[in-house]
Amino acid sequence: MKYILCVICVSAVAILLVSVDAGKEEENMLKQVAEGCINETGATDADVTAMANKELPSTPTAKCFTFCVLKLFNCLTETGDFQQEEFMDLMRMGTDNNTVLTMCDEVSKKCVGTKSPDNDNCETAGLLVKCLDDGAKEAGYEKL
Where is the signal peptide (predicted)? Predict the structure, then answer.
């Protein structure tokens, strides 16, 4: 598979977004960093594994876990607003590849304003991750 990033970051959001196949080490790191979110949302091992493997959240719990992790790293506010600059700051921590960063910036700017119709933050997180993933695919990358 063709993936965009080739580094493993220490933050849970970067783990969510980097495009290398996640192994046990990354999954364990995600569990450590996001332990509060696991407890807050009741996320299962399957939810954490899915996030570590860059799978789109498909269950209500997985979407709430995604919201919590994105909020933890200031990519989403309490009200579900996408903080594109904070997202890019995390991406810059993960890579210094200007081509990748430019694409991420362009893709993520298109996702600003993504919200669920009923302002459900968990649904918003799911829609945001899907927006980022769809944008990366449109830009010629399989996953963001």
Answer: 1-22
